[in-house]
Design a protein that fits this description.
Elements (H helix, E strand, L loop, with lengths): L4 H4 L4 H12 L7 H5 L2 H20 L3 H24 L5 H15 L1 H4 L8 H18 L15 H14 L7 H21 L2 H21 L4 H25 L9 H17 L1
Helix pairs in contact: 2-5, 4-5, 9-11, 10-11, 12-13
Length: about 270
Amino acid sequence: MAEDPLILNPNGGMPRLLEIMRRLRDPDTGCPWDVAQDFKTIAPYTIEEAYEVADAIERESWGELKGELGDLLFQSVFHAQMAQEKGLFSFDDVADTMSDKMVARHPHVFGDETRDKSAEQQVKDWETVKAAERAGKAQQGALEGVALGLPALLRAVKLQKRAARVGFDWPDISQVVDKIVEEAGELSEARDTLGQQEIEEEFGDLLFVIANLARHLNIEPESALRQANIKFERRFAGVEAKLADLGKRPEQSSLEEMDALWDAVKVDERQA
């Protein structure tokens, strides 16, 4: 290590991280686990790290966020190192590609277009630029290119946005609500008369339309569901605390009792 001043430099920045990754992947002296990985085996870790970044932001844990962003950055470095080994591209190529894309998509900042536009107009301009980029890639269908690996709710919204851009969309939010009622009825009917596969299909249809409602309400469904999860955890912990005051655990209580305590927790939250 005495011959590795860059590795030991606490202020080595990106060159240090890239060199660490290169050393980890060295087939002769690197880490056996790192050497054994490929794009497919690392991809799940990349997705996991992205969610951990989102979790730190959700909890406003800014100290943790620095580390989580570092973990996510390391995933990009890992993929870029494997690509470089295959002669595909380097980390600098990744950075340059991103820089070129941002410059092209922000002519009002880096070009001669005016900045005198609303955020809504900028979103429309952004979508126009991306549509032109997709046309340049010879994508045929309006829905082509929406990543299969996205979380299902997020992918549903992206698919619906693409369809809406070519006119396939409900013009009024009441029609979306009506469709939710219709799909809920079909799910109820499937539950009573059909098999598990048909029930799952109808449930998927209902979720898809709920995602559409989120889009029409300008709500990010993944974020809304995360908030609902957090609220459920908090309130159920409150129920457990109230049961503990009574010398009980949830499994020693009835649904009726826990439901009443749940309402009490909600009252406590409103009064806090």
